[in-house]
Design goal:
The structure is a single chain. By secondary structure, this protein is α+β, with helices and mostly antiparallel strands. Helices cover 35% and strands 25% of the residues. The protein has a 6-stranded antiparallel sheet with strand order 3-2-1-6-5-4, sandwiched between helices. The longest helix has 17 residues. The protein is globular and about 40 Å long. The two termini are 21 Å apart.
Length: 162
Amino acid sequence: MFAQSTLSGSKAEQYAQLLEQARGLMHGEHDRTANAANLSSLVFHALPDLNWVGFYFFDGKELVVGPFQGHPACVRIAIGRGVCGTAAATRQTQRVPDVDAFPGHIPCDSASRSELVVPLYAGDTLVGVFDLDSPVLDRFDADDQAGLEAIAAAFIQSLQPA
């Protein structure tokens, strides 16, 4: 049985603990919807100052909202559009300190002020993106990016049968 514990220590240590919890939560499960749902909840409840955590999955044409925690979201996002579409198109994490300053930002939740989006690729195949929004300007730093990229990598790894 999975048991979430309170994170402690430095930010890097907290992300190491969160990654361990994420791996435990996904252990033995290969279904992307199940793992995305549980990861969204885990991260949303573990980290401060977030108003949306979730996944968009690539359906062969565009990104479609998947499991998430937070207010209702945009359902479809074109590749290359907004923060999520840009992360998917460039294959690079987008860390946006002020979403209002991001060209083409899609305001799904008007409360969001900063955003971090990690592209999800299995080899050369686009799976989707892992998206986090915050009502706080400049919420995400390099430690957040590294920690969330590690969690995203664990998610992709969980989709591979042993």
